[in-house]
């Protein structure tokens, strides 16, 4: 889940129960950005009592991407492609 890998930047709920979710993408050209936005919207709408839902996408900086990579792969170094040396 994106909540466990640091991709949720912020969630706010207003007095009228409208929800604003800010989500980090790993790159601005993320091919899954529409799917991510749609799934976050549906997940928020599934919470009883939720009003309007707005999802805003942002892009991780280099440090955030490095931390995500470490979380997903452990502290191992970048993979080496031997024939590319």
Q: Could you name the key traits of this structure?
A:
85 residues; alpha+beta; 29% helix; 24% strand; 3-stranded mixed beta sheet; 2 helices
Tell me the layout of helices and strands:
Layout lengths: L7 E6 L5 E7 L7 H13 L7 E7 L2 H12 L12
Parallel strand pairs: 2-3
Antiparallel strand pairs: 1-2
Gyration radius, in Å: 16 Å
Runs in which pLDDT lies below 50 for 5 or more consecutive residues are none
> Helical region count?
2
Write the CATH architecture name: 2-Layer Sandwich
β-strand amount: 15-25%
Tell the overall outline: elongated
Count of DSSP strands: 3
Order of helices and strands: EEHEH
The helix content, as a percent range, equals 25-40%
Q: How is the biggest beta sheet arranged?
A: 3 strands, mixed
Mean pLDDT: 90
Main sheet: which strands, in order across?
1-2-3
Structure explained in plain terms:
The protein is an alpha+beta fold and 85 residues long. The chain has a single domain (2-74), classed as 2-Layer Sandwich (GMP Synthetase, Chain A, domain 3). 29% of the residues lie in helices and 24% in strands. The chain has helices spanning 33-45, 62-73, and strands spanning 8-13, 19-25, 53-59. The chain has a 3-stranded mixed beta sheet, covered by helices on one side. The model has no long low-confidence stretch (mean pLDDT 90).
Q: Brief description of this entry?
A:
The protein is α+β, with helices and mostly antiparallel strands.
